[in-house]
Design a protein that fits this description.
Blueprint: E1 10-13, E2 16-20, E3 33-37, E4 45-48, H1 55-62, E5 67-71, H2 77-80, H3 83-90, E6 94-95, E7 113-116, E8 119-125, E9 134-139, E10 144-148, H4 166-177, E11 184-187, H5 196-221, H6 227-234, H7 243-259
Parallel strand pairs: 4-5, 5-6, 10-11
Antiparallel strand pairs: 1-2, 2-3, 3-4, 7-8, 8-9, 9-10
Helix pairs in contact: 1-3, 4-5, 5-6, 6-7
Pfam family, one: Lactamase_B
Keywords: Hydrolase
GO molecular function: hydrolase activity
């Protein structure tokens, strides 16, 4: 079974399976991936990102239980809107980097190792897409990294002002690019990928190329150029349905160039 597969638990590694929520959109690709993490010998499981407030999806995830713990990669609603209902279904505590998202448990810390479902998950703070974005590295015989929206299974990640921050995101990508080769990517949207180091390196190259294009647009149109005007030039090859998201990213790019002293204002 391959991605996408709605309504069916799909095994990806010996300890990680995914249920794809039926919330497709230009921003969520085919939908949100809810990950169920359990070593084959464990009696409980960990759920990463319950997903949207979709009763049928949440019930399917809860039926994989008992769920001992819920982990959140970041606060966006397509990953978290179903949390309250999921807690009612399972009674499981919820942990996130932001204490406001936690239910019955403490916020986790960067570098913390979480042991549940027979698996050890190391928290890696990867701010940029949002300030509270994290990844989870599974230290297992077949290691992998759950990337939330920091790395997607297809396309690239939106960095939206004001919560998103391009400088932080570039630093997070550099961190992910230092992971051992061959570490599998289990993303929040889209299909899994074979090598986190390779894709993070490719993301960095793509971001630098986009920044060069933004610099060129500013030179051509002047420092008062609007994000929309930049999008029309730099993202002309991108489907117009995602231009609003591209405009958010351009705002972050322009803010980054100002922070680096390359733009005034």
């Amino acid at each position: 079974m391959e991605h996408p597969a709605y309504g069916t638990l799909r095994q990806v590694t010996p300890y990680a399976s995914v249920l794809l929520a039926h919330n497709p959109s230009p921003m969520t690709l085919e939908g949100t991936n809810t990950w169920v993490v359990r070593d084959p010998g464990a009696g409980d499981c960990v759920v990463i990102d319950p997903g949207p407030d979709d009763a049928a999806h949440l019930r399917r995830v809860a039926d994989q239980g008992p769920v001992s713990l819920v982990l959140l990669t970041h606060h966006h609603g397509d990953h978290t809107d179903g949390v309250e209902q999921f807690v009612e279904l399972t009674g499981a505590p919820v942990r996130a980097l932001d204490p406001a998202l936690c239910r019955g448990a403490e916020a986790f810390r960067d570098g913390e190792v979480i042991k549940a479902g027979g698996v050890e998950l190391r928290v890696v703070a990867t701010a940029g897409h949002t300030a509270d974005s994290v990844c989870f590295i599974a230290d297992h015989d077949e290691p992998a990294v759950f990337t939330g929206d920091s790395i997607l299974g297809r396309g690239t990640t939106v960095v939206a002002q004001p919560d998103g921050h391009l400088g932080s995101y570039l630093a997070s990508l550099r961190l992910l690019a230092e992971l051992p080769p061959g570490l599998r990517v289990l993303p929040g949207h889209g299909p899994e990928l074979p090598d986190a180091q390779a894709i993070a390196t490719a993301y960095l190259k793509h971001r630098e190329q986009r920044l060069d294009q933004v610099r060129a647009a500013v030179r051509d149109q002047g420092p008062e150029v609007t994000p929309r005007q930049v999008v029309e030039v730099v993202y002309a090859d991108v489907d117009r349905s995602v231009w609003p998201a591209a405009e958010w990213t351009v705002q972050a790019q322009l803010a980054y160039l100002r922070e680096q002293g390359e733009l005034r204002g």
